[in-house]
Amino acid sequence: MSKKGKIIIALCLLPQYFLLKVAKQYPEFVETYYSLGIFPTISKLLNTTFKWIPFSVGDLLYVALIVYVIRWAIINRKRLKTNPIAWSLDVLSFMSVLYFMFHLCWGFNYYRVPLHTTLQLNPKYTTAQLKSVTNKLVIKTNQLHFEITKDSLLKTTLPYTFSELTEISHKGYSQLEKQNPSFKHESENTKKSLFSTPLSYMGFSGYVNPFTLEAQINAVMPRNSMPTTIAHEQAHQLGYAAENEANFIGFLASIHNEDLYFNYAGYKFALRYCLIELSKRDPEVYASTLCTINPGILDDYQEAFEFWSAHHNPLEPVFKGFYSHFLKANNQANGIESYSYVVALLVDYLED
Q1: Sign of CA dihedral 53, 182, 217, 256
Q2: Residue 129 and residue 132: Cα distance in Å, rounded?
Q3: How far apart, in Å, do the first and last CA atoms of the chain sit?
Q4: What is Dmax (Cα atoms) for the chain?
């Protein structure tokens, strides 16, 4: 590419940055013309292109990108001193293209109308409301757990393969679509991540690749944790970029599923979030509530806790800190803590 072309592309970083600043102020515009306008076409194109490939193309793209950047940096290390302007142009033009493709393929969804607005949910709740909803979740989760195990003391064992889980989860969205057409999920494009073990040590259960729209699932984590993880990542594929919203939609898709195991996973997921929040607001009630939960459910929680504890490493806070800054840069003011905001949506949705 000519030097003039590189200058033009590099300078495009500035209008892109300011465009996002403007987009943040007009979520209705983004919702109408991108999330419900351009994005569905892009999503269909990417899904059609990559869903038939049995392995994770997105993972390989990341590897190729990392290798390319390292190789380029080594080859061009001397140019940083001898010709810093040309070196900077190469870097900035590359970043400009990557930045553009990220937002075009998926990233603009960070600036859409908040889900609590479109679903008319109240994002605020009292401790009394939290206690009431938590008690309801205990009753419902206990009931589903007993239906599966026939013994309150036993932990659950998911009887499905990974491919069966992705198919069943997709059917849950088909049921959810009957209540809200905006949750229509047209394509299955969920795959095991090729880097499941590294993801475990980084503290992540999955992610959606913004350039291929593949839902990448950590395939080595406990199987009982997969239903809601898959449903969560599939929500991202629909264009719900905010983590709290993807959590809530994953919950909805799970409890509206015709499969009993997914129902249980969805309510267990919601109960866990409410329990965590209850432990902060009223430790005594939290402790007494734990005593009312089937021991088998607590064993399910313990299995997940032991897995993530075994994969904890000193660099995990670095990875999560980086991701938190990424979220803040993309219109999620609370960063990775925005995950906890799902409790507000759960409380308003589940309260009578």
Answers
A1: negative
A2: 5
A3: 62
A4: 73
pLDDT recorded at residue 333? 56
Instruction: Judge whether 166 and 188 are in contact, CB under 8 Å.
Output: yes
10 in Cβ contact with 85 (< 8 Å): no
22-67 pLDDT per residue, tens: 999 999 999 999 999 999 999 999 999 999 999 999 999 999 999 9
| 131 backbone dihedrals φ, ψ, rounded to 5° | -60, -45
| Phi-psi group of 222: left, alpha or beta (phi > 0 → left; psi -120 to 50 → alpha; rest → beta) | beta
Torsion of CA 319, 325, 330, 333, to 10 degrees: 130
Does the pLDDT at position 235 exceed 50? yes
This prediction has a pTM of 0.90
pLDDT 10s digits, 85-143:
889 999 999 999 999 999 999 999 999 999 999 998 888 889 999 999 999 999 999 99
The three-state (H, E, C) secondary structure of the chain, written as one string? CCHHHHHHHHHCHHHHHHHHHHHHHCHHHHHHHHHHHHHHHHHHHHHHHHCCCCCCHHHHHHHHHHHHHHHHHHHCCCHHHHCHHHHHHHHHHHHHHHHHHHHHHCHHHHHCCCHHHHCCCCCCCCHHHHHHHHHHHHHHHHHHHHHHHCCCCCCCCCCCCHHHHHHHHHHHHHHHHCCCHHHCCCCCCEEECCCHHHHHHHCCCEEECCCCCCEEECCCCCHHHHHHHHHHHHHHHCCCCCHHHHHHHHHHHHHCCCCHHHHHHHHHHHHHHHHHHHHHHCHHHHHHHHCCCCHHHHHHHHHHHHHHHHCCCCCHHHHHHHHHHHHHHCCCCCHHHHHHHHHHHHHHHHCC
246 touches 342 (CB < 8 A)? no
Average pLDDT, the chain: 90
Give the CA angle between residues 213, 20, 27 to the nearest 5°: 80
